[in-house]
């Protein structure tokens, strides 16, 4: 329902590179749907509309299509900000903060407030020392071009203050909206029998090779593995599966329009990433009563897997601990967690309250 009074942030502009299927973009579309439902105008500057997430574009969103899937195409953003004069810019994740910096640099005082969401870990132990030092220096520049940062958990907020140098009063804790079933999504063909499920892009960050390597070492040699997602690491993962002789036990069906039915049906959900922000798949699994096994890929992971009856957290490179954790939750008769409840806080309303406050302050 539209607001009865004219809000300060009545026009929100956000942007994305592609709709090929990432958690950052999917969460952004979910939030945009909520903002539109609250009566706000939302413009999406989009590099390419090719990809499975095109089916999730909310009704009423205004598209500026750049017809260019390269990240550098988003350097056109300042031009469209000048033309459209939005009240606020929403940067949906870490991958996009360079574009936010460029927009602030080009527009100067004419730039509307920029709010960025922290979507990935700000401490990256997998980086080489030189790259890690450059990354830390880059993070310290963020207070120069961001008006506010949204973190999805208190631990991520503390990390933003510490690693970015953001003032505590400019960092806000707002969770992503809870995933909801998508009735018209093409159903995923599930394995027969018990299976471990991974959900996420097939990219090096996710380290699905760890999970595939663990499969032949499990006590139950009949357990299957299905990983929902697509990406550039597919050829390497397929080669690993073939080398281990696991073609009959591992399925890589690609992107899922709605992964929730697979999450609910899985014996357990596993996430073996090097780094994450606040992994939505862990929240979704526990909301459905599916146990999880995850690496310590983020300071937010212990906030989600907050009790041993929910799942197990293992060190990133501890292969033995990963196998032991999987075996524990795959033990026949192992009790599944009680489904967790949604937070009472409305993320859409919390975002809009923040946007209105910043837009009003600028005026």
> Main β-sheet, in a few words?
7 strands, parallel
Secondary-structure element pattern, one letter each: EHEEHEHEHEHEEHEHEHEHEHEHH
Low-pLDDT parts are none
| CATH fold description of the largest domain | Rossmann fold
Could you give a short description of this structure?
With 363 residues, this protein is an alpha/beta fold.
Architecture overview:
- The chain has 363 residues and is an alpha/beta fold.
- The chain folds into two domains: 11-178 and 345-362, Glycogen Phosphorylase B (Rossmann fold), CATH 3.40.50; 195-330, Glycogen Phosphorylase B (Rossmann fold), CATH 3.40.50.2000.
- It has helices at 23-37, 77-84, 97-107, 129-140, 154-164, 208-214, 234-243, 260-265, 280-287, 301-304, 319-330, 347-362; strands at 11-16, 41-46, 62-65, 88-91, 114-117, 148-151, 171-173, 195-199, 224-228, 250-254, 268-271, 292-295, 311-314.
- Strands 3-2-1-4-5-6-7 form a seven-stranded parallel sheet, sandwiched between helices. Strands 10-9-8-11-12-13 form a six-stranded parallel sheet, sandwiched between helices.
Task: Note the topology.
Blueprint: E1 11-16, H1 23-37, E2 41-46, E3 62-65, H2 77-84, E4 88-91, H3 97-107, E5 114-117, H4 129-140, E6 148-151, H5 154-164, E7 171-173, E8 195-199, H6 208-214, E9 224-228, H7 234-243, E10 250-254, H8 260-265, E11 268-271, H9 280-287, E12 292-295, H10 301-304, E13 311-314, H11 319-330, H12 347-362
Parallel strand pairs: 1-2, 1-4, 2-3, 4-5, 5-6, 6-7, 8-9, 8-11, 9-10, 11-12, 12-13
């Amino acid at each position: 329902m539209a607001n009865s009074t004219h809000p300060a942030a009545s026009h929100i502009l956000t942007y994305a590179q592609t709709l090929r299927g990432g958690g950052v973009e999917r969460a952004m579309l979910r939030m945009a749907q909520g903002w539109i439902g609250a009566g706000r105008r939302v413009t999406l500057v989009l590099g390419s509309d090719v990809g499975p997430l095109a089916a999730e574009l909310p009704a009423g969103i205004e598209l500026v299509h750049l017809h260019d899937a390269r990240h550098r195409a988003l350097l056109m953003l300042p031009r469209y900000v000048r033309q459209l004069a939005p009240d606020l810019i929403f940067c949906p994740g870490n991958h996009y903060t360079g574009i936010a910096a460029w927009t602030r640099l080009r527009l100067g005082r004419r730039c509307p407030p920029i709010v960025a969401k922290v979507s990935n870990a700000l401490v990256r132990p997998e980086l080489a020392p030189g790259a890690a030092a450059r990354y830390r220096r880059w993070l310290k520049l963020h207070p120069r071009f961001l008006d506010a940062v949204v973190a999805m958990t208190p631990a991520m907020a503390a990390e933003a203050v510490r690693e970015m140098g953001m003032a505590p009063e400019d960092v806000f804790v707002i969770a992503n909206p809870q995933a909801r079933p998508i009735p018209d999504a093409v159903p995923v063909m599930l394995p027969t029998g018990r299976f471990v499920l991974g959900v996420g892009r097939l990219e090096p960050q996710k380290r699905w090779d760890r999970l595939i390597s663990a499969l032949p070492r499990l006590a139950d040699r009949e357990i299957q593995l299905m990983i929902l997602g697509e990406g550039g690491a597919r050829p390497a993962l397929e080669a690993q599966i073939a080398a281990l002789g696991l073609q009959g036990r591992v399925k890589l069906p690609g992107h899922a329009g709605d992964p929730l039915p697979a999450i609910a049906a899985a014996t357990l959900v596993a996430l073996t990433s090097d780094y994450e922000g606040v992994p939505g798949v862990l929240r979704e699994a526990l909301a459905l009563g599916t146990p999880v096994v995850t690496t310590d890929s983020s300071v937010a992971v212990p906030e989600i897997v907050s009790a041993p009856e929910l799942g197990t957290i293992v060190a990133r490179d501890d292969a033995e601990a990963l196998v032991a954790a999987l075996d524990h939750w795959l033990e026949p008769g192992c009790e599944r967690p009680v489904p967790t409840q949604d937070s009472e806080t409305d993320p859409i309303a919390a975002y809009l309250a923040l946007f209105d406050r910043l837009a009003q302050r600028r005026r």
